[in-house]
Amino acid sequence: MRETIETLSNNKELISPGISACVGCNVELTLRTVMRVLGPNTIIAIPPGCMGGVGVVGWNKKSGANVPVFFPLLDNTASMLAGIKAYYKKIGRDINVVAFAGDGASVDCGFQSLSGAAERNDNIIYICYDNEGYMNTGYQRSASTTRGAWTSTTPVSKEKVGGKKQHKKDFPMIMAMHDIPYMATASPAYIPDLVNKVKKAMEVKEGLAYIHVLNPCLTGWGIKPNESIEVSRLSVQTRFFPLYEVVNGDFKLTVDIKKPKPVEQYINKIKKFSHLSKDDIEEIQNYVDKKWNKLKMSCVEGGRNDEQ
Amino acid sequence: MPKTDVINGNKAAAVAVSLVEPDVIAAYPITPQSSIVEYLTQFVINNDIDSYMSEVESEHSAMSVLTGASLSGGRTFTATASQGLSLMYEPYFRASTLRLPVVMAVTNREMISPQTVWGGPQDSLSVRDAGWLQIYVEDNQEILDTIIQAYRIAEDKKVLLPINVCFDGFYLTHMTEKVEIPDKQDIDRFLPEYNPEHIILDSEKPMAVDPLTSGYLLMEYREKHLKAQQEALKLIEEVDSLYEGITGRSYGGLVENYKCDDADYVIVTMGSMTGACREAVDHKRNEGLKVGLLKIRALRPFPKQKVMEIISGKKAFGVVDRNVSFGWDTGIIYQEVKSALYDSKCYMPSVPFIGGLGGEDITIEHFEDAIVKIHEAYQNENNPQTVWLKN
Amino acid sequence: MMESKEKEYITSVGEGIYSINTGDWRINEPVLDQEKCKKCGLCFLYCPVFCIEKKDDYYEINYDYCKGCGICARECKSGAIKMVEKGSSSYAKN
Ligand code: SF4
Ligand code: SF4
Fold first, then answer.
1. Residue B117 touches partner C, C-beta closer than 8 Å
2. pLDDT band at A307 (very low <50, low <70, confident <90, very high)
3. Interface contacts A/C by beta carbons within 8 Å
4. Does residue B160 belong to the interface with chain C, where contact is any CB pair within 8 Å?
5. Could you tell me if C42 and C75 are in contact, meaning their C-beta atoms sit under 8 angstroms apart?
6. B255-389: which CATH architecture?
7. Which of A208, A301, C14, C61 is most solvent-facing, going by the fewest CB within 10 Å?
8. CA C41 to ligand 2 center in whole angstroms
9. C76 Cα to the center of ligand 1, angstroms
10. Domain covering C28-85: architecture
């Protein structure tokens, strides 16, 4: 942790100090952290979504960052970055070419271009901030939304019937199966872990590095601002969102959860799940257990036990 | 010394690209364009050219990769057709509104349905208002020469717009003709380096690309975009003469005027059909009918002034379209030519023709019939309905 | 007129930083008690706005852009940060 504090306090802030992300937004935290690690030798793509909406790409003739920043289209982030990298590679300049994209732009309509770039070994860093839906357009569902969750397009009736019917797409695993050199999951509640992972992603010089961050959305999910980090931490401590990395095909938990809390504890903190019955919650718990066991079987070694 | 080779249109396009040596090429195969991608990947693996080749997973990504590369300051190339062009529409429009001088060949192919792979410019004509420059060419030599010129036009500081060089699928892509290949040194001298200042993604010069923008600024950018298109009118002509100075070949710039000066009637064509029409014009002239041919090369920007100068004062004109304009009951070029003539204040009868869709032939006989119909329109003082040139 | 002095562009680009005054947003604001503080740095790590600054051997809140979310108070394990009504603390600037 000391090292993380050193890194983050020594490095310059590259994002505008005043962006209009919601009070307590852990995506803002993730972005600022990631950018301090990446440093000024970086070009960053912010596709349409929360971070674009809050002003990270700027307004009229002003920029929202002190590095080159741009809006790709919602569905071409990875291929635009691949083109940028291709040119810099050709002229022999090493530069971090990075995406900071929401789940809609990554797991839904941006998937084709991301998968293509991964397969072609395009040397880009792709960070997905997964807030489980189209939050900037008013909380619509995405393939990344958790089963049962209320969203504005998976509404709930007075009889408490409704919510999303399908499980969350296991996107980190899908990216790992592309056999890219580096894949990791991360959480805004585990900043030292996130910082390490960004550093590892920067070391990749051949192929794509992918980091999937689960970012509970305060406004869209119904979470108190001061519990922003706490809820994020619960997503990890309940094994709902395991923190692991896959380095050249080898799986490893970076934070092991030896004594998991029940998923219910995470769910109870979030309003979008308030209509769920005991059975619904059990269904999610079973799914989480199954996924965890599968992941454990893939891991070559366990990580350090959770110390938080 | 320039060499001569007998090659098909796709090879002519690939050879032109190899003379320019773009920094980044990205392409996805589609009939009838595919062999362009094959030739280029071969050139790259043979080290004949120093370009970065990205074999993307779709046309959408092809244009996206080029957008990124061009935003970083690179010179780029891709080629596509029909469905591929439709798929890339989203980044296609944006390449022009970001003012990126991307060069793209379009091997014109019909749009489905019905399922078809044969020629026709419905694909690129359908996106004519997406802000790109579009030049339509007639033969393989013109393909090669125009692709080289395209870089000079697109990258000029007064223009800074992406450009399509469009040519008919199969008729040109797969047909071999004798083509003269210029010397690389001559092309290097002809093409100055591309050094973008208006927009760049470079960590040494942090800049935001596409911040959220108010309407008043958007209007300002659109106004400048429209002006740049008008600047291109002059530039296309200038570049044509400059290029003539090096290679001895000129295509007339925006349009080609074939025997229109003393003509009473004008028939308008575009693309590979023009050769057959020239013959028909000669036949009809031999029979005593004073007819001329106007070939449209530049569709965007549209050469309104040229078209006006050439057609106004004639007795009648007709336009042969290898495409349709849904909702107008005619082809697209017919409407464009008619709009151009409005300011000339001189009215004359005119005939819209449609033919050659889905790769069908437009024969010399078709053109002779068409010329007769134009003559009749003058005699009868009427504007007939669209005439379909069928077999 | 301001507008005429602005740099002209032919397409959508931005130079120089755009920022909004998010300090205006907060209703409550954090107060850090240096006596209770163990200098662990957790508040520094989890403030989404990065407005807690690390000095040589202590941490200090810069209120310019602090949105008053209360995360720092919640994450501090030593109870060194309290949320108080905006302006009611002598530590806080307005
Ligand atoms: S209240 Fe929120 S924004 Fe203000 S210092 Fe604490 S964590 Fe940062
Ligand atoms: S979290 Fe609390 S104890 Fe740790 S540095 Fe901040 S104020 Fe001090």
1. no
2. low
3. 110
4. yes
5. yes
6. 3-Layer(aba) Sandwich (3.40)
7. A301
8. 5
9. 12
10. 2-Layer Sandwich (3.30)
Residue of C5, C15, C49, C54 best to disrupt the A interface, most CBs of A under 10 A:
C49
How many C-beta atoms lie closer than 10 Å to residue A162's C-beta? 15
User: Does C41 sit in the ligand 2 pocket, CB within 6 Å?
Assistant: yes
Regions of chain B short of the pLDDT cut 70: none
Nearest CA to ligand 1 atom 8: C47
Q: Could you give the CA distance from residue C74 to residue C85 in angstroms, rounded to a whole number?
A: 16
Distance, in Å, from the CA atom of B331 to the CA atom of A234, rounded to the nearest integer, reads 64
Q: Is any atom of ligand 2 closer than 6 Å to the C-beta of C73?
A: no
Look at residue C6 and tell me whether its pLDDT is greater than 90.
no
Q: Which ligand has the minimum distance to the alpha carbon of residue C52?
A: 1
For chain A, what is the HEC assignment? CHHHHHHHHHCCCCECCCCCCCCCCHHHHHHHHHHHHHCCCEEEECCCCHHHHCCCCCECCEECECCCEECCCCCCHHHHHHHHHHHHHHCCCCCEEEEEEECHHHHHCCHHHHHHHHHCCCCCEEEEEECCCECCCCCECCCCCCCCCCECCECECCCCCECCCCCCCCHHHHHHCCCCCEEEEECCCCHHHHHHHHHHHHHCCCCCEEEEEECCCHHHHCCCHHHHHHHHHHHHHCCCCCEEEEECCEEEEEEECCCCCCHHHHHCCCHHHCCCCHHHHHHHHHHHHHHHHHHHHHEEECCEECCC
Parse chain C into domains and list their residue ranges.
28-85
Centre of ligand 1 from the C-alpha of residue A93, in Å: 38
| Nearest-angstrom CA–CA distance, C36 and C38 | 6
Task: Provide the mean pLDDT of chain A.
Answer: 96
pLDDT digits (tens, 9 = 90+) for B68-95: 999 999 999 999 999 999 999 999 999 9
pLDDT for C4 beyond 60: no
Taking the model in full, what pTM does it have? Answer: 0.96
pLDDT at A42 over 60: yes
Question: Which residues on chain B are in Cβ contact (under 8 Å) with C10?
Answer: 99, 160, 198, 221, 224-225, 228
Using a pLDDT cut of 70, give the percent of chain B over it. 100
CB atoms within 10 A of CB A248: 10
- The pLDDT tens digits for B306-341 are 999 999 999 999 999 999 999 999 999 999 999 999
* Every domain of chain B and the residues it spans: 3-247, 255-389
pLDDT at C20 exceeding the cut of 50: yes
Looking at 3.30.420.10, 3.40.50.970, 3.30.70.890, 3.30.413.10, the CATH number of the domain B3-247 comes to 3.40.50.970
Q: Report pLDDT digits (tens) over A191-220.
A: 999 999 999 999 999 999 999 999 999 999
* Tens digit of each residue's pLDDT (9 = 90 or more) over A140-198: 999 999 999 999 999 999 999 999 999 999 999 999 999 999 999 999 999 999 999 99
> Distance from C94 to chain A by nearest Cα, in Å?
16
**Complex-level ipTM beyond the 0.85 threshold:** yes
